[in-house]
C-alpha cells in the first residue's frame, strides 16, 4: 500500500463542480492514469480518497488537497511520476501542483486543517472607504448569528482575520476557521458585509495546518 498527498488548483472552469463530483473526477483520473486505487473493506467498499476541506460551490482554489492510497498492485513510482501520470489525464480546471509521499499511519488529512485563507475580488467597482467601514463594523461585533442547514451558529468566532488590501484591483482577504464542526464560509462573510457573493470572485489561497 502507498499513500500520496496531492496539492492541486481548482480553477474557474470547475468552480461550479461540487465536492462529490470532484471526488468522482479524481477516481476517473486515477483510473485513466493506470494507477490502482485502494478501496476500503466491508460490504460497501469505498475508494481510499480523502479531501482536505470541502470547497463551497462557486469558488476556485489554488491550494486544494487530497490523499489517495494505491494498492500493492501499483508500480512503485516517484511523486514526480505520479504527478505526470495524473496531469496527463486530469480534466481542464484540475491542475496538479505537488505530490508527496505520506506515511500510511499519518492522521486523516481532514482532521489536520485548522483554517483556510481566501482572496475576494469584485466584479463591479466598489467604494473602498465604505468597504473598510463595513469590515471594521463587522469585526467589532461580538456575535454574528446565522443559520446553516436548519441550525443556528455564530459566524464571528470563525473569522480569524479580515482585511481590505489596497491593491489594483481591490482585494479583500480573510482567514476563516476550517476545523471539523467549526468552519467559516467566505460567501457568508460577504453576506454579512451586505455584498452579494455572486458579484465577487472568491478564491481559496491557502490551507493552514494545525
Primary descriptors:
210 residues; alpha+beta; Alpha-Beta Plaits; 2 domains; nine-stranded mixed sheet; two-stranded antiparallel sheet; 4 helices; 11 strands; 21% helix
Describe this structure in words.
The chain is an alpha+beta fold. It folds into two domains: 2-106, Pseudouridine synthase I, catalytic domain, N-terminal subdomain (Alpha-Beta Plaits); 112-209, Alpha-Beta Plaits (2-Layer Sandwich), CATH 3.30.70. Helix content is 21%, strand content 37%. It is built from four helices and eleven strands. It has helices spanning 19-32, 79-89, 128-140, 186-192, and strands at 2-10, 49-51, 60-70, 94-102, 113-122, 145-148, 151-154, 159-165, 171-179, 182-183, 200-209. Strands 1, 2, 3, 4, 5, 8, 9, 10 and 11 form a nine-stranded mixed beta sheet that branches. Strands 6-7 form a two-stranded antiparallel ribbon. A hairpin with a 2-residue loop joins strand 6 (145-148) and strand 7 (151-154). It is elongated, with a radius of gyration of 19 Å. The relative contact order is 0.20.
Amino acid at each position: 500500500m502507498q499513500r500520496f498527498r496531492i496539492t492541486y488548483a481548482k480553477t474557474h472552469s470547475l468552480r461550479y463542480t461540487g465536492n462529490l463530483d470532484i471526488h468522482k473526477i479524481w477516481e476517473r483520473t486515477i483510473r485513466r492514469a493506470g494507477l490502482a486505487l485502494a478501496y476500503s473493506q466491508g460490504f460497501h467498499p469505498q475508494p481510499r480518497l480523502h479531501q482536505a476541506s470541502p470547497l463551497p460551490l462557486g469558488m476556485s482554489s489554488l491550494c486544494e488537497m487530497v490523499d489517495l492510497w494505491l494498492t500493492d498492485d501499483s508500480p512503485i513510482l516517484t511523486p514526480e511520476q505520479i504527478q505526470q501520470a495524473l496531469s496527463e489525464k486530469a480534466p481542464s480546471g484540475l491542475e496538479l501542483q505537488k505530490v508527496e509521499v505520506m506515511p500510511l499511519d499519518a492522521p486523516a488529512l481532514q482532521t489536520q486543517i485548522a483554517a483556510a485563507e481566501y482572496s475576494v475580488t469584485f466584479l463591479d467597482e466598489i467604494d473602498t472607504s465604505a468597504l473598510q467601514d463595513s469590515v471594521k463594523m463587522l469585526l467589532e461585533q461580538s456575535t454574528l448569528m446565522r443559520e446553516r442547514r436548519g441550525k443556528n451558529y455564530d459566524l464571528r468566532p470563525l473569522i480569524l482575520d479580515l482585511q481590505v488590501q489596497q491593491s489594483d484591483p481591490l482585494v479583500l482577504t480573510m482567514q476563516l476557521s476550517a476545523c471539523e464542526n467549526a468552519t467559516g464560509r467566505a460567501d457568508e462573510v460577504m453576506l454579512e458585509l451586505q455584498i452579494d457573493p455572486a458579484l465577487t470572485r472568491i478564491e481559496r489561497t491557502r490551507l493552514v495546518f494545525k
